[in-house]
Amino acid sequence: MYLPDGYTTLEKLREAGEYAEYDLFFGPNHPGMHGNFGYVLTMVGTEIVKVRPNAGMLHRGFEKAMENKPWAANLSLIPRVCVPDPDPNEVAYCQAVEKLLGCEVPMRARFLRSITLELSRLGSLYMGMGGLAGALGHYSTMYLMMIERDLILDRFEALTGARVYHIYNIPGGVRNDAPEGWLESVSRLLDHIEAQMPEYDRLLYENHVVWKRLEGLAPISAQEAMESGITGPALRACGVKADIRVDAPYAAYDQVQVDIPTSGGGDALARAVQVRLDFAESVRILRRLIAAIPEGPVHADLGNLAKLRVPAGDAYSKVESSKGEFGYYVVSDGGEKPYRVSVRGPSLPAGLYLCHKHLPGMKIDDVAAWMMSFAICPPDIDR
Amino acid sequence: MTPERFSRMLTEFFGDAAVFADKGGAQWEVHAPRDRCLPLLSFCRDHSFVHLAFISAVDWIAENQIELVYHLWSYEHRVHLLVKTRLEREKPWMFTAHRIWGHAQPYEQEIHEMMGVFFIGNPDLSPLFLHNWKDKPPLRKDFDSRAYSLKAYTLEGLGLVPPADKEDANVPS
Questions:
Q1: Is B150 within the bounds of a domain?
Q2: Is residue B133 part of a domain?
């Protein structure tokens, strides 16, 4: 394209006042945005100058609503805090309540919790990898991965009767034991997943377009990540060996071997590779859990859960979700309802803080890939 | 690091101002008054508690206080530390921690909006979630969400129709 001397870049055009800044709404209705959340981007041409998070449209007032419901009834709200990966919320809340109650969870229930958590992680990572492919324009990969995720949801349906929000965990354990043959069906599913993965590796990770788009995008150092509240795969992608399943074991993660793979590099490509490593490790952990699950009861006897009373006090419990640390800070005044429940979601540090550092200077086409690489899921910001 | 050693270090630096407690299960707790809270947070960060998980606020209406809880984690020692400080409930204010952890800024912005705590030095306390909010901060204990819904989302509450007979009202009593 011909441009007169001194007007070769958009920046110069802007300096000359010939290329005005304009505001662009990235979301709430945008294929690259998950849920009713958005960024108002101030743009010059295709380049972002400033960003303003536009939250609130998805806010459901869960923390307030939980103060008005009995302890066990809150479990119907809690999985909705994270749509693709709901089980970590249930487990974190139940563990905090169990800490206050001082109750011991039976070993089989702890294993079933870990198995459902890992299945939920696989489903969410499929959505993450598929979403990343979608953000880069590879829609076929996304559709194929959604099919695989559906197979995991089938297993959840067989176990709990629900596909997306399972409400399987209760204070003291899990609702019911696995039906006969369920664990074998999960093993068969894992065989299928492992057989399919090379195909998806060829589609996504051996695709040089993906490498070219992600390499060097939004790099972050290990120190900066730790001090910015980044957790989970995005932190491990900086080379930090940190995983709550190992650092502060819960459920049955202290009963089986859990390794922490790290990719290192800290850019969007490293984060994408980290998700793949986490996926493979999750499959291995599931196999170990299924091999080691003991027989026994699946919940402690806490009486009528609808009338559960929790001793006064406060407790914090956290779970390693597919996106990072999910934490529940629960305060009780000894009543039939929580006094306060405060939720720590993994998306807020990147979604509301790092966006101001990373997005300015970025091209508009990289925003969706940036969001996917940090696994930003607005329902836990707007909760 | 043992809890005893951390407790000794706190006493050395803060005297009686920081009250330490070991809650068990690798969770520790420190209470500090508002004016010592920020130096305490800075001290904790320099002593391996580099991860600020989040900040939460609890409205203790009977004691007329609002409690801020800073959740810290040490990757090195694998300990969760709760730093707590209490503010008076009428016009509560606190110094910002966003110069210690950058991501404290949106957490403080959220608490300002939902609990009405003012954070001195926070660069942006504009509304994040609530648009055109004129009521009291919604996470305060004296905010009644049901009464607000009836006022804001029913035709009667908005004064658009006269109050109907109780049997005909489509609002459950």
A1: yes
A2: yes
